[in-house]
Write a structure and sequence with these properties.
By secondary structure, this protein is α/β, with parallel strands linked by helices. It has 16 helices and 14 strands. The two termini are 29 Å apart.
Amino acid sequence: MLITDHATTTSRTKEPMADSLHQSRPGDHATARAPVPGSSMGGSPAGSAAGASSPATTPAPAFDATRLLSGALAQLSRVILGKDQPLRLALCCLLARGHLLIEDVPGVGKTTLANALARTLGLALKRVQFTSDLLPADILGTSVFERDAAGGKGEFVFHHGPLFAQVVLADEVNRATPKTQSALLEAMEERQVSVDGRTHPLPTPFFVIATQNPTFQIGTFPLPESQLDRFLMRIDLGYPDRDAERAMLAAPDRRHVLDGLPAVVDAAQLAKLQEACERVHVSDALRDYLLDLLGATRNGSGHGLSPRAGLALQHAAQAWALMAGRVMVLPEDVQAVAPSVMAHRLAGIDGGDGRARAQTVISKVPVA
């Protein structure tokens, strides 16, 4: 799949999605692959004619989205062995501009995965180790009174905390108190922080990758539902199988592997991939299916998935479709990402098994 921008001497335009895609029945979930909107593949005849008659048109260099994403996944697979599905979900989450929560027992590679993602996508990462004595100012930053060099009047100057990074690794986030956990709420939703009456924008892109230990372990504080809902996905890695663990034992230390990881995708390419995700077509029939899934989680008392969860599910499905090389979302894309998008939100309602509840909803809601 090739994605390109077409620039002319007078304007910069994006090629719209082919009319045939919009005119086809929204519920026709064809598996044929096609270029994303703006692709240099499969251009319309009208577009070709326009290009032929306009010598001033100079296409910008194209990049192959499928090749980039395949290369990123291949590199991640060399760091985290035998975990192809969690790796695809993690990359899908970041393509959909979402925050990622990784929950599992210590020592299975949660922090290593976060570092590998940041290095593979060419993003600056800062790590915060969450502990019970961590304060909000330790994350956000603080204002310090500074006098000028001449010894005259001074002023309070805000010094950025580690939250001001493209990728923030909140390691063992549920070991901090609820007060400190709440410091992430504004940042995760609005991509900004407010300190001392002033608002400070965060870098672009901005991702939070948080790891948490199972809540039955000593010294953990459950994340509130309002914060769980801000994570687009929650994934777990689990123990590797025997062959993968044998390969890991025979391979160099994971830290040495991380040190040598090159960036497969740069910031500009990542921005184009994210824009391509947003242009993946979602039919009316597919949106009806999403609404049916949301409705099935809600009962008379109002509990269930929030509208924000519905948007997260749609964005994740668009990213999953792009990773599969398609320009429209299929029910299979929704079903592939739904457990990871829904489980932590459903578990937060009554403390039950959110993944089992999500699978039950998916199995009971028919595809129209």
